[in-house]
Structures are given as C-alpha cells and as structure tokens.
Design brief:
Length: 252
C-alpha cells in the first residue's frame, strides 16, 4: 500500500468522494486506479478560521503501485506504507514451571495478562478492588453517601483509575515497536469505536470502556487466565534472593 500525508479537506466537504478526489490530485492517478482507502491519522486544523480543515494521513491500495511510487519519488508526502505491526517478543528457552502472577488489573496489568494468555501462560491476576460492574456500584454509593470502600473506589478496582476518566487515550511516548497501536487494535476488537485508531486525541468513553474491560477479562479467562478480586498483595516471601511465594490479604 501507499501512504499519503497532508491530504487537506474542508470540514463541510468531509466525505469519501472528496478524499478520493484529493488522492487523485496528490498522486496523479485516476479514481478507477484506487482499490481501497484506509485512514491512518485524522486531525483538525482550525488555525485559519472560518476556514477549517481535516488533515488526513491515508493508506491507499492502487492497481499500479510501483508506477505511482516511482512517479512521486521526490514527494516526501508519498511513500510505501511502513509495517506497523506489533511483534511479540521472542520466547526464552527456560520452561516456566509456575503460572505468572500479575498484581493489579489496571491498563498495564490487563494488557500484560492479555498477551501472556494469548501465548498460553495462564496468568493469575490479583486485584485489590472489585470487578468493574460491582466497582461502579461502589463508586456511585460513595458519591451518594460519602462512605469510602478503601480497596475499591475511583482509584482501585478492575480497569484502574482511567475507568472513571472518560476513557481518554493520551501519551507523549514515541513507540517504535507499535505497542500503542496494538493496544488500540485490541480496544477496537473488544468494543471501542474504530475511529480511535486514527483520530487525534482519541477517547473511548467511560460506559464503553467498562464493557471493553469486561470483554477483555472474559477473553483472558477463556484462554486460561484467572482473576482474583478483593485480593491485595501484602508480602513477598524471599529465600536465597529469589521470590519464593507471595502473601495475599495478610493471610494466604
């Protein structure tokens, strides 16, 4: 496929027909040559009001790709689409005799569990708070009464603190391994809107995010993972400078 940057479309003319027209002008091809168009990025340019534009980065499939690339070889806005697929780290050569334990089912814990489960490692996820549906009721109870449940609240519980922050997706980290893209693709697979894959400053929305979290949890369980809620890590048992076991809830 071919990646095209800086396709500028007036907001009032934002449609596929206009996009295809702009593509033809940019790469010097005919509409019949365009087989498919995928949005890579989309942002709003409102610097020159009242003229407001969407700025697109697109991946296009055309019938004569090599010819188009050669014809536009001097144009920095036109290039072959790079491979942005996340590559799973290579497996080691030492057998893991115990199931891996993940502490917390916030973003880091949830996605660690997801990838480990996909690879057949049957992770155990311990979470000091409640499953997301019960957690929502607990938080609503707190807002109505002021009664705080210390281990399950806006901060603690399945999904992490972001579950109550409108599901905004924002990071300033540059990621050459495309981990963030993989995260967004998983979000979409389990219920988020596909436009988070390309929209500038995307967000999922709190209600949708809760369902996404549940759908991911159910998938992890189906792959052999186990979730233990209301379960707090209280100690690490260390022998000979190695973790021998963990203690949960000050007793087990």
């Amino acid at each position: 496929m071919i990646r095209i940057r800086q396709i500028k479309v007036p907001v009032e003319n934002d449609n596929l027909q206009e996009l295809r027209k702009k593509i033809c002008q940019k790469v010097k091809c005919q509409d019949k040559d365009i087989i498919d168009v995928k949005i890579s990025k989309k942002s709003l340019d409102a610097r020159f009001k009242p003229n407001i534009f969407y700025i697109y980065e697109l991946d296009i499939k055309v019938s004569n790709e090599d010819i188009i690339l050669t014809k536009n070889s001097s144009n920095k806005d036109i290039s072959e689409t790079p491979d942005e697929t996340y590559k799973t780290p290579k497996k080691g050569n030492i057998k893991l005799n115990k199931r891996p334990i993940i502490v917390g089912s916030g973003p880091a814990g949830l996605f660690s569990a997801y990838l480990l489960a996909e690879q057949g490692y049957n992770p155990i996820i311990i979470e000091r708070g409640e499953p997301v549906d019960e957690r929502v009721k607990t938080v609503e109870h707190f807002w109505n009464t002021g009664e705080l449940k210390e281990n399950s609240n806006v901060q603690f519980g399945e999904g992490g603190a972001g579950t109550f922050s409108d599901g905004k997706l924002n990071t300033l980290v540059k990621d050459k391994d495309y981990r963030m893209k993989k995260v967004f693709e998983i979000f979409v697979e389990y219920g988020a809107s596909p436009d988070i894959l390309y929209t500038h400053n995307p967000h999922i929305g709190t209600d949708i995010l809760r369902n996404v979290v549940k759908n991911m949890r159910n998938k992890i369980i189906s792959l052999g993972g186990t979730f233990l809620y209301n379960t707090c890590l209280t100690n690490l048992i260390i022998e000979n400078n190695q973790i021998k076991s963990i203690e949960i809830n000050n007793k087990e």
